[in-house]
């Protein structure tokens, strides 16, 4: 009898853990849907249609970003097998190529707008008229700042509070322009280049925003609301060889990471990272982390194997870098977590 009770308890716990782990949403990040634009930020129209067809054929649901962020704001469970489609920079190919394909599937999507390029009618920038049309058709229109600058950079002799006040003004101004032109005001932000610091992340949380980065992984209830993960689809990262793996991924529930800053030291030498996980349906021996072309050694710090330490094999190069940590999960799916950094030049400049 006691053995039966223990078995039932174990099954209940396993189902509870699976239900918790399965609360993950995958957010896709696109820029250009075009064959002629820079490959680093482009997805071909043909490949984009393959993505949409895979989503439909595999019975995944496409949800509006606002539905998911509302759940995150209130701490409610997230739906499994759910995709969110986002576009950064408000390029014309979104209207010309992506919009017709999305309408065919009746899929909602989000466009993050850097308002300066639209106001100034930059080459390949959407017009407010086109944005309004897509908004009226169900698109979410959200904030990508005014000029898509490197927010981590400070102006010469700019003090910390002056820097934060300047960024707050930019976010407020862009949000106002979007509302003036489209009527939409969601307090959603996509970080330009995915670059942040703890101070910037705290700023947006204090202002009531939920923000999204460019580090890969699925969104879970423990994800950082100031920098939700997204899978970039440009530069070959959206190939059909890898797309199903990413679309089906689960959030590796990291509850803390130290040091937490995404701003790397100027010499690129990172202190060892300490990562804390919730218990879950993975084998600690199968968790693997990768960075700078290397597989990293994992040093477990507790008997329960929920806290581990990793060290970079070499200094980070200038620009943006990341680690990816993965582990096999249930039903052939993979748990996934990514942490990114930006290393500035000696004079405090970020690389495009």
Automatic annotation (TrEMBL):
Main location: secreted
Enzyme class: hydrolase
Domain of life: Bacteria
GO cellular component labels: extracellular region
EC number per UniProt: 3.5.1.-
Family annotation (InterPro entries): Glyco_hydro/deAcase_b/a-brl (IPR011330), NODB_dom (IPR002509), Polysacch_Deacetylase (IPR051398)
Recorded GO MF terms: hydrolase activity, acting on carbon-nitrogen (but not peptide) bonds
GO biological process assignments: carbohydrate metabolic process
Stretch forming the signal peptide: 1-24
Keywords recorded for this protein, A-Z: Hydrolase, Signal
Subcellular location: Secreted
One Pfam family per UniProt: Polysacc_deac_1
Domain NodB homology: 81-284
Protein name: Poly-beta-1,6-N-acetyl-D-glucosamine N-deacetylase
């Amino acid at each position: 009898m006691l053995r039966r009770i223990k078995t039932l308890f174990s099954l209940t716990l396993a189902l509870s853990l699976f239900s918790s782990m399965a609360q993950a949403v995958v957010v896709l990040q696109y820029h250009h849907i075009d064959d002629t634009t820079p490959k680093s930020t482009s997805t071909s129209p043909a490949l984009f249609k393959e993505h949409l067809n895979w989503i439909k054929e595999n019975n995944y649901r496409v949800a509006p970003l606002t539905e998911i962020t509302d759940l995150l704001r209130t701490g409610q469970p997230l739906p499994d097998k759910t995709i969110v489609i986002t576009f950064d920079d408000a390029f014309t190919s979104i209207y010309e190529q992506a919009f017709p394909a999305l309408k065919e599937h009746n899929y909602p999507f989000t466009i993050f707008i850097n308002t300066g390029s639209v106001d100034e009618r930059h080459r390949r920038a959407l017009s407010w008229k086109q944005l309004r049309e897509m908004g009226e058709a169900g698109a979410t229109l959200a904030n990508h700042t005014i000029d898509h600058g490197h927010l981590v950079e400070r102006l010469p002799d700019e003090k910390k509070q002056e820097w934060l006040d300047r960024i707050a003004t930019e976010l407020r101004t862009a949000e106002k322009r979007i509302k003036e032109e489209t009527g939409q005001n969601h307090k959603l932000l996509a970080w330009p280049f995915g670059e942040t610091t703890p101070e910037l992340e705290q700023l947006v949380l204090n202002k009531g925003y939920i923000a999204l980065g460019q580090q890969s992984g699925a969104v879970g209830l423990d994800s950082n609301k100031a920098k939700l993960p997204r899978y970039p689809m440009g530069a070959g990262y959206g190939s059909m060889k890898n797309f199903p793996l990413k679309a089906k991924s689960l959030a590796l529930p990291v509850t803390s990471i130290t040091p937490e800053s995404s701003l790397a030291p100027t010499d690129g030498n990172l202190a060892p990272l300490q990562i804390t996980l919730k218990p879950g349906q993975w084998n600690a021996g199968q968790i693997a982390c990768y960075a700078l072309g290397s597989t990293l050694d994992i040093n477990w710090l507790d008997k329960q194997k929920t806290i581990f330490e990793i060290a970079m094999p070499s200094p980070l190069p200038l620009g943006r870098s990341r680690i990816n940590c993965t582990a096999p999960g249930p039903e052939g799916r993979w748990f996934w977590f990514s942490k990114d950094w930006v290393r500035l030049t000696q004079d405090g400049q970020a690389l495009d």
